[in-house]
Amino acid sequence: MWDASPRDLGYGARGCGCDEAPPPVCTVRARVLRLAVPLAAVLASFVPPSPFARAAEPAVAATADTSSPTLKGQIDLLLEAPILADATVGIHVVDLETGKVLYQRGPEQALNPASNVKLLTTAAALVLLGPEHRYATRILRNDGALSGSVVKGDVYLVGSGDPNLVTEDLTALASELHARGIRRITGGVVVDSSRFDRDELPPGFDQKDELASYRAPSSATSVNFNTFLVRASPGAKVGDAALVGLDPPVGGITLTNTATTVAGRGRKLFADVESVGSGMKIEIRGTIGEDASSGRYRYPIADPSRNAGEVLLYALKKQGIKVGRRKIKVGPTPNKARSLATHFSDPLSALIRSVNKFSNNFMAEQVLKTLSPTDSAATFAAASKREREALTSLGIDLDGARLTNGSGLYDTNRVSPSQITALLTAMVGDFRYRADFLASLAVMGVDGTTRSRLQDSDATRWVRVKTGTLDGISALSGYVGARGRKPIVFSLLLNDLPSGGTSSAREVQNEVALMLSRYASGRPLRPADEAAANGP
Fold first, then answer.
1. DSSP label at 270?
2. Is the confidence at residue 17, as pLDDT, over 80?
3. Of 8, 51, 400, 487, whose CB neighbour count within 10 A is largest?
């Protein structure tokens, strides 16, 4: 996943979501990051114990074998898994066909929902912005500044908070300028990010000082998810310098390469990354085998607005448009500025698929901040207030809930399972938003963060969910469907898990989802019972 383009990653896929954070390809020691860690051998030798393993407990097994098992009894058994012995469990299950609560335990507890908070972020966005909303990124000029092929003075790059703007989009804008006959800009590039109050880390992101791509700052003018890419490949022969470069090769980032090519297929590369003013310095050192595959490593940038200007400057140069001033400026656009080119994002209905299916943190925070009223510069505080108002308008009682950021990263948010099921019920019952909201969720066994969960099972394609994982926390909420009936909504939030317990906790969640799928379809709750009923 780290070898995909930013957009393919959903910044994009698991790699940038807080709940499915990328494997630790980088380890931080005094701001020194190891780029490549041979995890494969370690992971291959580690098989987590089954969360259902119970030594010398025949009484439990006997209970499981009784006839006519109930849904409540079967879920009770699943939640007795040893991995949950000291965990805080919150679960709420409602059958929308009958309106009855099928199961609950601690349904009103306000727990850390991890990335399940993205359900609230995206639902509020659909209500406040509309599924059809598109973010506009514009290039403008001063009034009267266009003379033939020359723009006299500066051009202005104006962002509106687009969460999915990438290099190709700015290249398309530069191409549009070239198509209009523009060949020279006598001034330079000025970036106008005034839609947001400032470039900043989202709320709660200061809890950890980690140089991770999923912890990128927010800005009204953001490109490539406010990250940069380092590519590393072996040289032509042993002893040659490694081939290392930036993508895109923009100003503001100084790259030094002392890495060398050695025999073999190993890769022992390190990066020393340092923020210097509004720019960054990065040194790549170590060794890479002549037979090693190329590697790609992504890091957050320090100054989003200036980085966006650098990427536009790079795109203009590629189009053969000369720019007089090399230094990027940040400031407001003149009142009488005229448009030169505009890029529109995909509609919000498509963007939120990256947020929910792939748990994209950066996009979630961008979407949240754009919920702020447009009559003043957007702030996270104003956006969160408006988010609560939108959710309340759907009939959701948020008493006791704490909504701080849009992604669910870190220890910032608190929501109860019953509040999440109330949201799920409201969204599936609202014709205006139902289709787009459902389409944004991961389909278990098929795509997103649940592609490998419940594959080739009874529940494949019948369960649409949002996942969530932080240290000691695992969450799963969504819908279970079946032919000819309304869906079941459920939320299962697990907090205070033991270290390394999230993988086993996911197995418990999978089994609960599978059990609900069997119940919804009218099949026996236990596969053994179904096999016995079908005969030899």
1. E
2. no
3. 487
Residue with more model confidence, 14 or 341:
341
- Report the distance separating Cα 381 and Cα 161, nearest Å: 16
What are the tokens at 516? 């609900």
The arithmetic mean of pLDDT across residues 96-112, rounded, is 98
DSSP 167-184: HHHHHHHHHHHHHTT--E
Q: What is the pLDDT of residues 502-533, one digit of tens each?
A: 999 999 999 999 999 999 999 999 877 776 67
Catalytic residues: 115, 118, 359
First to last CA, the chain: 44
CA angle 60, 65, 71 (to 5 degrees): 85
What one-character DSSP code corresponds to residue 186?
S
Half-sphere exposure of 348 (CA within 13 A, CB side): 25
Q: Strand order of the sheet with strand 155-158?
A: 329-330, 189-192, 155-158, 136-141, 338-344
Instruction: Give, in degrees to the nearest 5, the angle at Cα 457 between 454 and 461.
Output: 75
Give the model confidence (pLDDT) of 334-374 as tens digits: 999 999 999 999 999 999 999 999 999 999 999 999 999 99
Cα separation of 468 and 446, whole Å?
17
Return the structure tokens found at 525. 């709750």
∠ Cα 311 336 319 (to 5°)? 30
> Which amino acid, one-letter code, is at 498?
P
Tokens of 452: 């490998």
Task: Tell me the pairing of strands 150-151 and 146-147.
Answer: antiparallel
Q: Quote the CA–CA distance of 154 and 323 in Å, as a whole number.
A: 9
Cβ count near 148 (within 10 Å): 9
Please name the amino acid found at residue 415.
V
Q: How many CB atoms lie within 10 A of CB 412?
A: 18
Please report the sign of the dihedral spanned by the C-alpha atoms of residue 24, residue 25, residue 29, residue 33.
negative
Spatial distance between the Cα atoms of 48 and 50, rounded to a whole number of angstroms:
6
Q: What is the rounded CA–CA span in Å between residue 76 and residue 340?
A: 63
| DSSP output for 238-268 | TTSBPEEEEES--TTEEEEE--EEESSS-EE
The residue whose two tokens read 């994002």 is 345
Q: CA 32 to CA 325: how far, in whole Å?
A: 34
List CB contacts of 500: < 8 A, sequence separation 6 or more.
48
3-state SS, 342-392, equals EEECCCHHHHHHHHHHCCCHHHHHHHHHCCCCCCCCECHHHHHHHHHHHHH
